[in-house]
What does this fold into?
Amino acid sequence: MGWKPVRVTYTSDYFQKLYELAVELIKRGKAYVCHQTKAEIEASRSIARAKISDPNAPGSPDSPWRDRPVEENLREFENMRKGKYSANEATLRLKMDMTSPNPNMWDQVAYRIKYMPHPHAGADWCIYPTYDYTHCIIDSLEHIDYSICTLEFETRRESYYWVLEALDLYRPKVYEMSRLNISYTVLFIYIQCI
It folds into this structure.
């Protein structure tokens, strides 16, 4: 059809900026380094689910590291960046709302440790940002006016805006739509790659 985009970008083009914004979230008391295992995080989410129907249900859904001091979180996040932890030994989580009825607000993971070279960034990073952390930030940095997703992302709108508000960033409008199958038609789809 002869159409060429003005530019093609990848989330990995923004790895340094995403890292700096994660540090800013820590400084604002909105993120913390967590050492819970996947099973322990799932157990805390089970407690959060139970507390939605019965606020007096036993236990706390909060990570034991949720309230560690900012300076300690900064040091621990830097240790993650320097490769001082093995994969899955630490994550950076966003201090959202463990009492929310929306599970996407239960202290999402923003960064994970993964010792694998990236197809675009090479071996410069051993921590990688998650989709839920990057999607909204990249939309904002690239000044996307309308972020259009399919309906399964509808419950993520609250967390999308939470990250942008926590960082005082531009807020695109988010719309969700159902999937549409069209036969005998060529469609062009924008895909955000990490």
User: Anything to note?
Assistant: The radius of gyration is 18 Å. The chain has a mean pLDDT of 91.
